[in-house]
Amino acid sequence: MLEQLPSPSEKRLAIRVTPAAERAIRSGHPWLFEQAITKESANGRPGDIAIVFDRKKRFLAVGLYDPKGLIRVRVLEHGRPAIINQQWFHDKIAAAAKLRAPLLETKTNGYRLVHGENDGLPGLVIDRYDNSYVVKLYTTAWVPHLPVVIEALQAIADPYRVVLRLSRDAARQKSALFGLENGAILFGAPLDGPIRFQENGLYFEADVVRGQKTGFFLDQRENRARVEELAKDKSVLNVFAYTGGFSLYAARGGAKSVLSLDSSHPALNAAARNFELNPALSGVRHRLLKGDAFEKLSELQKSGNLYDMVIIDPPSFAKSQAEIDRALASYARLVRLGLNVLEEEGILVMASCSSRVEADEFFKLVYRTAREARRPLTEITRTAHALDHPIGFKEGAYLKCLFATG
Ligand code: SAH
Asked: Is the distance from CB of 75 to CB of 31 less than 8 angstroms?
């Protein structure tokens, strides 16, 4: 699979940028946008190494070039020259692995090993599921470097298999993929179904080819653990349940019933299977509800259903700047709908994964909406990122979650 890829070009592109981009790069930002480039020494190919200079031809950064991307260069090294070779990739991945070491003490073998920009490898994600690894590319600029990345991964993690996932944008750039497809096995044995892994001692399966992200929302692990701590004797409604992450933790925490609501049939099927993987949870009543969250929440309210804990973890509503207002309105609607089915003094768990909606704005919106609905909230805690999702730049801070009673 990897043999068919071209070697990375020996040629270095020289790039000059606008003063604004110069400042952004000096402050450590990893993205250089198309319109910030004032001069290019040649027409670059995906994955060429670009050297970025300021107006006075002073060195600024080394990056990966993507001729089709709005983000034209992703910075690999700021402020000092670097030779981007196997050793360089090895050092970056090894540093990322070291940061995650504490997770290995927690009966967890599903986590994010490399979190793109935030681990100094912009546009590259590597998730571990037991001894399989999923490499997800957000730009085809990584394609010529895949062989050295995989070699580095082999030296550090000894994977049994490595699976490729492509972002929608990357998957469209067929000519830069050299036959690679989403779901391709880059190394090791073919897949024979979802991959089973452990998170805090619970078993889950992830469909690493068709599942969202790389098959599981690894970023919510700590929030799931908090739900477990709060769930004893509670009836729990898990809205946007996906494959039941929060539901299983609630069940293990002693919930008296759990209802998983999602619009995706395959996701709910997987949630049911995940319960079956954990026989210790078989005593807990778990039900599935398929449908649109907004509609189903209204219906549940109309039929008089109330829950002691309502978890709302919607998909990212603001995929672009223009969608922010609509996203905020959707969050507000969900808070109102959630409070309508929350018992008095019940617990609301409200999450947002839109990086364009800032944490403060989100928390304020939740509180304001609750006040206006005459269900003022009292905070239990607010949370951000787990250690396998470090925050390396502004856009990296996307996840926020409020635990409150109301
Ligand atoms: N809480 C989950 C992750 C949620 S991801 C976890 O911890 O694993 C978002 C989920 O929302 C996806 O499963 C998707 O199928 C579902 N979804 C998206 N739009 C929806 C809608 N309008 N109604 C119900 N579910 C929806």
From this structure: yes
User: Ligand 1 pocket test: which of 129, 242, 310 has the largest number of ligand atoms within 8 Å of its C-beta?
Assistant: 242
Domains in the chain, CATH or no CATH each: 2-78 (2.30.130.10), 86-196 (3.30.750.80), 217-405 (3.40.50.150)
Does the Cβ of 111 fall within 6 Å of ligand 1?
no
Q: What does the buried/exposed string (b/e) look like for 189-209 if buried means 16 or more CB atoms within 10 Å of the residue's CB?
A: eeeeebbbbbbbebbbbbbbb
* Atom 13 in ligand 1: residue holding the nearest Cα: 242
From residue 378, how far is each of 209, 364, 381, 406 by CA, in Å?
41, 13, 9, 6
- Give Cβ neighbours of residue 264 (< 8 Å, ≥ 6 apart): 242, 290
Distance CA 241, CA 259 (A): 9
Contact 366, 352 (CB under 8 A): no
267 CB near ligand 1 (under 6 Å): yes
The pTM assigned to this predicted structure is 0.96
The pLDDT of residue 170 is above 90: yes
Confidence of residue 180 (pLDDT cuts 50, 70, 90): very high
- Gap from CA of 152 to ligand 1 centroid (Å): 34
Average pLDDT, the chain: 96
Which of 141, 212, 207, 149 has the alpha carbon at shortest distance from 177? 141
Per residue in 12-28, pLDDT tens?
999 999 999 999 999 99
DSSP structural state of residue 369: H
Rg (alpha carbons) of the chain, rounded to whole number: 23
Atom of ligand 1 nearest to the CA of 314: 9
Which percentage of the chain shows pLDDT scores above 90?
A: 95
| 266 Cβ closer than 6 Å to some ligand 1 atom | no
H or E element in which residue 81 lies: none
Assess whether the C-beta atom of 316 lies below 6 angstroms from ligand 1: no
Residue bearing the CA closest to ligand 1, atom 9:
315
Question: Above 80 in pLDDT, residue 44?
Answer: yes
